[in-house]
Each structure stands twice: as structure tokens, then as C-alpha cells.
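Ticket #242: bound-state structure for 2-acetamido-2-deoxy-beta-D-glucopyranose.
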Amino acid sequence: MLFTMASSSSHRLVFFCLACLLFTFSYNFVAGESDKVKLNLYYESLCPYCQSFIADGLVKIFDSDLHTITDLKLVPFGNAHVSDKLTVTCQHGEEECKLNAIEACAIRTWPDPNVHYWFIRCIENDTTNWESSCFTKYGGKKAIKDCYTSDLSKTLILGYANQTLSLKPKHIYVPWVTVNGKPQYQHLDDFVAQVCKAYKGKASLPKICHSSALSKSPQSKVVKLQVSYAEEVFNHQAKNLN
Ligand SMILES: *[C@@H]1O[C@H](CO)[C@@H](O)[C@H](O)[C@H]1NC(C)=O
Ligand SMILES: *[C@@H]1O[C@H](CO)[C@@H](O)[C@H](O)[C@H]1NC(C)=O
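RESOLUTION: The complex was predicted; output attached.
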């Protein structure tokens, strides 16, 4: 009896020490969820610079170890409008509203950014022929279509509308990127460096943060010419009125 008790308490001690070790290990090497840098992208599916930023920019997060310190949130609404009757109008027309909704449904279907990002990138890389190739490559066809054809997609888009319209400061154009809530303005080209700089957690910095390519980032290209301004829609409407 005594022996059993002693042995079970020593087992407990061993287990406790293992748990401590495991905890220390994960604490040192894996960024805690709450420490991660919050990188939000406010975009719309058919704005050309959004497409290239998703396909060629954001891929750096998942192609490297940057994802270990990054909490990426994609917000597919952009410069769309919501009427008083909750009708959504998109800057690049109906097709853009459709793709925004499909992408919202993909995020809902696969909450892990390292999963839904690849599907959304697949769409953004080829917005005309995405349907057969992306569903074949990543699956999810039934879940995403069911979501798209139900009220759920509308609810999701109104949620993204809310997030976009409550931005402080307001977004001026898309793609609009915030790092821990701060707009990046002209820094889109070096968003990797901005994420590395913003990381204050205990895990060691990802290797990509030390790469020499980062320190000598070229001054931002002509981002201003490529973004889609929020007022473009208004200008267009104003012209129609004349
Ligand atoms: C992008 O789309 C083209 C076709 O437009 C395709 O050939 C290519 O494989 C796609 N790339 C990725 C990364 O999906
Ligand atoms: C927007 O979201 C906030 C908080 O998430 C909520 O309180 C508010 O009712 C929402 N507004 C709309 C119009 O959905």
C-alpha cells in the first residue's frame, strides 16, 4: 500500500517535470497566439494591386517561417458600399461581390490562415478560371458553395463591412494593410520588415527577419498608381449624374 502510493506520487512528479519541460520548450520556441503580430488586409477581390499583393506579397508569410509570429486576417470587402436596405454594391461590379463572398466562405470553411490563404491566392491568381482549378486543388467545393448560396455569405460580408467601415483611421484605398492596427500607408513593399519590427513576443525571430534582403528594401514602388481609391466609385457615380 505504502509502496503503491510512493510510486504513484513519484510518477506524478515525473509527469509534472515532463509537463514543465514541454511548457518551457514550447514557451521558448513557439510564439504565443496572443503575442503574434496582427496583420490585417482590407481588400476587394478584383482590385489589381490587391490581387498581386495577395499572390506575390502575402505568400512570403507562408513560404517562410514568418507565419509563426503572424496572425493574418483577410477582410474581403474593400471599397464596397452597404445601402440602408443592406444591399452590397462592389467597386468592380457583381463579379467582385461574388468573389468577395466566396472568399469569405473559404475563410469560414477553413479558419486557419495557412489553409484559406492558399485557396484565396488561387482565386486571386486567376479570377476568371479559378473555379475548376482551385476546387480541384484544394477541395471545399460543397462547403463553400453551400455557404455562398445561403444567407451565411451575406452575414459574413456584412461582418466584414462592419470591420472595414469601423477602421480608425478610415481606409483611403485598397489594399489597406494594418500591423497591430496601424495603417502601413506606403510600406506595403516591406510589410515583412514591419511585422518583424512589431514582434515583441518571447519566441526567437523567424529567419526571414534576419535576411539581408529585408534591410535594403527598395523604396516603395509606385503603389499610389496601382491602388484602388475608395472615392473612385463616387467619382464614377458623379460623372454618371452629369
Ligand atoms: C496562376 O494562374 C495561372 C493561369 O492563369 C497558372 O498557370 C498558374 O499555375 C497559377 N499559379 C498559381 C501559383 O496558382
Ligand atoms: C459592428 O460590430 C460591433 C462590434 O463587433 C457591433 O457592436 C455592431 O453592432 C456592429 N454593427 C453593425 C452595423 O453590424
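RESOLUTION NOTES: The two ends are 95 Å apart (CA to CA).
TICKET STATUS: resolved
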